[in-house]
Amino acid sequence: xxxxxxxxxxxxxxxxxxxxxxxxxxxxxxxxxxxxxxxxxxxxxxxxxxxxxxxxxxxxxxxxxxxxxxxxxxxxxxxxxxxxxxxxxxxx
Length: 92
What we know:
This protein is mostly beta strands. The chain contains one helix and five strands. The protein has one helix at residues 49-52, and strands at residues 2-6, 11-15, 24-28, 31-35, 41-47. Strands 1-2-5-4-3 form a five-stranded antiparallel sheet. A hairpin with a 5-residue loop joins β4 (31-35) and β5 (41-47). The longest helix has 4 residues, at 49-52. The N and C termini lie far apart (52 Å). Mean pLDDT is 77; it is low at 79-88.
């Protein structure tokens, strides 16, 4: 993920998927969501970011990494999350 702020154009851009072509975009109240052909979100742009957030939008950034391990966790192809399952042993 990449977060950029363009001071000249007052544009905050959050890129989730690098090198993925944008197939469609939807603008809602100055927030643009860019979609890939498979409907994944490629990026989000906030127009007039300093008017919608704060004078210096990058000052708001606090990054926290959270990884889900449940069956509904979002995964890229090939990624596996969760604990390794222990082998069952039987006592006689």
